[in-house]
Amino acid sequence: MTTMATKPHNEPAVYVYEAPLRLWHWINAFSIIVLCVTGYFIGSPLPTMSGEASDHYLMGYIRFVHFTAGYIFAIGFLFRIYWAFAGNEHARQLFMPPIFNREWWGGVWHETKWYFFLTKEPRKYIGHNPLAVLAMYILFVWIVLFMIVTGFALYGEGTGYDSWQYTLFSSWVIPLFGQSQDVHTWHHAVMWVMICFVMIHVYVAIREDIMSRQSLVSTMISGWRTFKDNRSVDDGH
Amino acid sequence: MSIVNTPNGYKLDTSGQRVVVDPVTRIEGHMRAEVNIDENNIITNAVSSGTIWRGLEVILKGRDPRDAWAFVQRICGVCTGTHALTSVRAVEDALGINIPENANSIRNIMQLSLQVHDHLVHFYHLHALDWVNPVNALKADPKATSALQQQVSPNHPNSSPGYFRDVQNRLKKFVESGQLGPFRNGYWTNPAYLLPPEADLMAVTHYLEALDFQKEIMKTRTIFGGKDTHPNWTVGGVPCPINVDGTGGVGALNMVNLNQVHQILKDSQTFIKNVYIPDILAIGQFYKGWLYGGGLSSQNVLAYGDIPDRANDYSPANLMMPSGAIINGDLSKVHDVDLTDPEQVQEFVPHSWYKYPDGVKGLHPWDGVTDPQFDVSSAKGTSQNIEELDESASYSWIKAPRWRGHAMEVGPLARYIIGYAKGDKEITEQIELVLKTLDVPVTALYSTLGRTAARALEAQWAADKQLYFFDKLMTNIKNGDSSTHSGEMWDPADWPSEAKGVGFTEAPRGALGHWIKIKDTKIDNYQCVVPTTWNGSPRDEAGNIGAFEASMMNTKVAVAKEPVEILRNIHSFDPCLACSTHVMSEDGEELASVTTSPIGS
Amino acid sequence: MTDTFYDVMRRQGITRRSFLKFCSLTAAAMGLSPIYASKIAHAMENKPRIPVLWLHGLECTCCSESFIRSGHPLAKDVILSMISLDYDSVIMASAGHEAEAIVDEVIAEHKGKYILACEGNPGLEQDVTGGMSCIVGGKPYTAQLRAAAKDAMAIISWGSCASWGCVQAAKPNPTGATPIHKVPDIGNAPIIKVPGCPPIAEVMTAVITYMLTFEQLPTLDRQGRPKMFYSQRIHDKCYRRPHFDAGQFVEQWDDEGARQGYCLYKMGCKGPTTYNACSTIRWNGGLSFPIQSGHPCIGCSEDGFWDKGGFYDRLSDINQFGIESNADEIGMGAAGLVGGAVAAHAAVSALKRTQQKGDEE
To answer: Do B483 and C254 touch (CB under 8 A)?
Structure first.
């Protein structure tokens, strides 16, 4: 598969996102939406239910869904790390921005100008453009890691003192933040960073699908990157 | 120059031997006393210094006024709750919130239970060892002790000779173990202890009984407030809902809890009647010749009043605890006290470790400034090891509050003198019964013993009034009113952009006031003037000495090096030093004078 | 001749049978299996009383007040029969030099064999107070604390003051109030934190009786608190938990939910983030605890609970970067900003694209 991605540059289409990765992307997207919605209602619950407590389990269900989605989210992320090794070259891009490469920083600069309407044309990439890589690395990888670690630290409080979640996460995360309430607060606040990231991500994907020189949204569905012109790509090897 | 005559009538002579007591123990917080003693062992000069402060008022700046009660409650864990109550009253005054009748009854029961508890614990566990010698109790005859018990309190069930023998044996074993614990290094050979062994044994027994019983008194507060020490309160009412006859009543204050409360209130009343009052009278009988320590009580006393009969009416006529001020011992005239009048309550700092921007002028709490300046450069010793304070300079963390320029005494004795002067029927009856029983004139009230007796009488009064408010609560519920919280003005969005209020209570130790200023839904300024600030105040600019200092003056001590009499006098005020000491800010500027016009008039 | 707890109880006229019953109740209160009852009985019968120095710093004495409310065992029995409370300025008979001498005597006589119980904390601020915000015997309290800590067998940090700093350490902490374990040169004695404002009375006495009975320190969690009392949240064992799971909340004071005992989560209850035994052991002989009496938990046993925003807010304030609002306020603001930027950017992009197309044509 890896050989495929390094094929000549001006082919009409390149197979970039392999099936497992695409599946991860959409499951991940779905779990983030579920986590944000349920997370919000854990912090600010819905209006009170009347009647007997035994007739309802609303908060319980909301929390259950949150925890389930959390597990999917976390396991997905672990898989994603595994896929960085097992998958093709593009699968590694997310985790390793080539920050010591001057040329790559030039690409970041060019794309930044592109978004500020200071240049007429973006460059052409098989994988992510350098600015996207940088944004993903900071706003996605680390934020996800933060949410998983704090999330499991909070979850470990419920599973109890001798659970693996408590031992692996709660036991050091809670003292690090000061106390449990602080972990809650930051877990909640960073959710909004994630929401902001999703908004930008979706907008940029659609925009670039229309305005850049390669396909984006459809690529994450079919796996194939198609190009709108025949000039050579800028991230070729 | 070693002799100074103070405006409030004391001749201070520093020529005699200086005796330092630091720490003064069996009080809340930290305090130091220094006295000069002449060749006849008479105290000729007295200095009291507050040696702790924590800065709570500054911490309150910028907080939600609805949270303030929890912060100020932590001013003191002994008079726990009284600061919280004062605080919610201050916020309610500022925002014009009315509370339901049930909330008023519950708050009053909680406040009165503090009076009962605090007075009882103070007498037996903080004060009694100034009068009672536990080592001497070992010599007592249990049979004679039993007879004494049955004579002074025929209705108290724990009175058999065997009972007293058991306690005596326990005490004996304790003493023989060589591990004296809290009784270690006491002054047990001092001739100032006057009780016969049997009275000592009876009192020590009650020390232990009271220690067991006191935890029961506070259980009412646990039922209403969830825990004690430091129960929960809320602006606008009380947090506990009432549900005596509806679905889920077990989740609220229900008949079971109310029965528990009722039982505790009755038991408290019985214990005070059968143990505390008889002990005071019995001990008083032996010490009635020792009438030192009156201090300012015969001149200037002050009370704000407390325990509103009907909710939301804090006028003197509706307050069941008396309010007013008596000046120069003139009982024929009780002055009204207005906490919003900038001319009445003022604080001075020339002898405190604070500085005012314009020097020596007294400031009303609305305009309160607290800018610390620790300085003991003129004292003997070093700044980290004070040997003798210099009372002509700054010498205390306590400010000097004055009422129209007068140093005042506050507390149970002040309240009882004011109630007596006003002709309060219940108070007058109680006082006259004690005077008759001990066969002493009314002037005997102006003493350490009088202060101690007034506290006991007030505990009895408070125990009775708890039941009055319990009945009131039940009647109101019976009439269909279960409301415990008004809900009005809970949402800060409904508040005016600026508001100010004052809340007051009578803490067990005396008159307590909180002044709050709210701006943009946050606390802009918060000032407390507390009982021990009044009683423990240092000298002011004019040279008036404070109530603690006055009480030590002219007292004869039996053994110069053993401060039993000094402790006796100071303890009789039930000092609370964590309460009394004011605040600071990191930079004096931040705290700078907040000027407001007084509310109301 | 030393006095043991058992001797005392026997002399009080208590039979061996009721003594053993007491021991099994104590074991149950500490969550121990019945076989420990005999161990407790043995300990009580044979051990001399251990010296305790109970020092008071910047505090409000609520810990002492709580301590005397203990029902099992009674404070009286702890003081007379279990420990030798040689110094405690709140109840001790002596004062002044005689009182201060006791501290030195105990340190000298019982080096490494006494317990130091700390109520309150020292104020280390130097600039305006010279470290003299708490003075004992003319010297800073810090000096007394350090001297007593150096040779202690163990230190008990009573309450949130000694454990975390508590109210006087709330922002801006004007006295520089510092919890015991963070005081410089405090020595190496193990520190047991028993936080709470105050701690539950029976928890306080149980920590002491545990140490006396088993001659070992209780197992501590990572933050130094006895696991037996501080390893679960109030929320985990709250009797109102079914209402939380059902989504039944008190929405405002004294509403129908309040009168039926619904969950106080929306009133700002900190039970879900507070490690303490209130919902199981409860207060004052198991009578009630804040939630049972209708008030949300304010989290008084947690580090820095004073500075987490209003007690009646579910979401804490975030005080970083000089702002003060909760996560939702900040987050919604940020999301709104991003949304606005996206919309504007999209509009400009569309405009540019139209222009470009026009140019190409």
So the answer is: yes
* Position B358 pLDDT exceeds 60: yes
Candidates B174, B177, B246; CA nearest to B204 is B174
A15, A19, A20, A22: CA torsion to nearest 10: 80
Q: pLDDT (tens digit, 9 = 90+) per residue, B462-486?
A: 999 999 999 999 999 999 999 999 9
pTM, whole model, 2 decimals? 0.91
Task: Give the span between the Cα atoms of C21 and C13, in whole angstroms.
Answer: 15
Give the chain A residue whose CA is nearest to the CA of C229.
A161
Omega prior to B598 cis, within 30 of 0: no
- What residues does B6 pair with on adjacent strands? none
Summarize pLDDT for C202-232 with one digit per residue, the tens.
999 999 999 998 999 999 998 999 999 999 9
Whether omega for the bond prior to residue B229 falls within 30 degrees of 0, making it cis, is yes
Residue A18 lies in a domain: no
What pLDDT, on the 0 to 100 scale, is given for residue B47?
96
Residue C15 at interface with chain B, using a CB cutoff of 8 Å? no
Instruction: Give the amino acid at C348.
Output: V
Instruction: Give pLDDT tens digits for C82-96.
Output: 999 999 999 999 999
Interchain CB distance below 8 Å, B383 and C59: no
Beta pairing class for B380-382 and B31-37: unpaired
Residues of C in contact with B381 (CB under 8 A): 138
Which chain A residue lies closest to C256 (C-alpha atoms)?
Answer: A50
- Would you list the DSSP string of C109-166? HTTTTSEEEEESB-B---TTTTT-SBEETTEEHHHHHHHHHHT-SEEEEEHHHHHT-T
Please list every residue in chain B whose beta carbon sits closer than 8 Å to the beta carbon of residue C87.
184
Confidence check: pLDDT of B344 > 50: yes
Output the six-digit token pair for B38: 């002449």
Query: C259 vs B59: CB contact, 8 Å cut-off?
Result: no
Give the structural domain span for A186. Answer: 85-234
Domains in chain A: how many in total? 1
Question: Does C68 sit within 8 Å of B211, measured CB to CB?
Answer: yes
Our CA-based measurement puts residue A229 at a distance from the nearest CA of chain C, in whole angstroms, of 15
DSSP state letters, B364-402: -GGG----B----TTSEEETTEEEE--TTS--BSS-EEE
* pLDDT at residue number C4: 57
A42 domain residue, yes or no: no
Q: Do A56 and C266 touch (CB under 8 A)?
A: no
According to the model, what pLDDT value does residue B590 have? 38
What pLDDT, on the 0 to 100 scale, is given for residue B563?
87
In Å, the largest CA–CA distance within chain B is: 78
Q: What pLDDT was estimated at residue C16? A: 62
Point out which residues pair with B11 in neighbouring strands.
B5
> For position A101, which CATH number holds?
1.20.950
> Which chains contact B through at least 3 pairs of Cβ atoms less than 8 Å apart?
C
**Torsion angle of C-alpha atoms B46, B48, B49, B52, degrees rounded to 10:** 160
The nearest CA of chain C is from the CA of B379 a distance in Å of: 11
Asked if B121 reaches chain C (Cβ–Cβ under 8 Å), the answer is yes
- CB-defined contacts A:C, below 8 A: 143
Which among C81, C88, C118 is positioned nearest to C103, based on CA atoms? C88
Please tell me what DSSP assigns to residue B67.
Answer: G
**What is the Cα–Cα distance from A224 to B4, expressed in whole angstroms?**
101
Which helix or strand (DSSP H or E) is residue C54 part of? Answer: strand C50-56
- Is A211 inside a domain boundary? yes
State which residues of chain A have pLDDT below 70.
1-11, 236-237
Q: Looking at chain A from residue 4 to 33, which residues have their Cβ under 8 Å from any Cβ of chain C?
A: none
Average pLDDT (C72-84) is 92
What are the tens digits of pLDDT across the range B289-298?
999 999 999 9
- The mean pLDDT of B224-245, rounded to a whole number, is 96
Domain contains A207: yes
Of C245, C330, C338, the CB nearest to A199: C338
Q: Rounded to whole angstroms, how far apart are CA atoms B237 and C255?
A: 13
